[in-house]
Amino acid sequence: KVVRTLRACVRLGRPLFLVGGTTMYGLGVTVALVEGARWNAWVSAVGLVAITGCQLMTHYANEYFDYEADRRNATATRWTGGSRVLPRGELPRWSALLGAGLSAALGLLAVWGLWTRQPTPFLWPLSLVIVALAWFYSAPPLRLHSTGWGELDSTLVVTILVPFFGFTLHNPSLIGLGHLVLMMVPPSLLLFSMLLAVAVPDAQGDALVGKKTLAVRLGIEHALRWHVLSALAAFTVLPLLTVLGLPVRVGLVLLL
Predict the structure, then answer these.
(1) Whole-angstrom Cα distance, residue 167 to residue 144?
(2) For the whole model, what pTM was predicted?
């Protein structure tokens, strides 16, 4: 029973989705190092703990606050409709809120550790903005995912603020930030496209409980049209980015 409970706790946190945050954090760190910053293994590791804690907080909070939508979702997939742990009764609902609180505490503790070791002017403001936007994605009173701003909120946090966080940890002088900004564009467009796609299977259940995602507000046909356009834009914009200063080799990797 203990093993089953632990497995359910892990699945409730949806660890598969941690890959995205880790990748974008790694992008920021990598660009900082390419631009001449000195690598600090301790800072990189603790920074990743901070980002992972924040991301887990978001996952657990979503499971708690989206419980009714997930319970009414009859078309859940591996990628959508939540982990299904709470609707199946594998864990009590309050466990998701507890997981969110513990994850937030872990992330903020990591930020405090970074501050004591290497205080930088962007660390606390950036960290608090990331935590706030991540929390209010699904938490009241803002519940951004129900206002039509949720997709933009997630895109801003994951593909812009997270790599910027990793970049400033190693390069607070912001030298070379322009290259990072150019590299953020395709992942931002792709993530926005993905968020529209994964909202489609949940649209019916979301509408029943007033969770008005863009897929609900626009309708499935229009949401899928924007999904395709955003995905195409991620690749068609690459020539322009190389003209603006993105190294061609980086553009080819992004294309790949």
Answers:
(1) 27
(2) 0.93
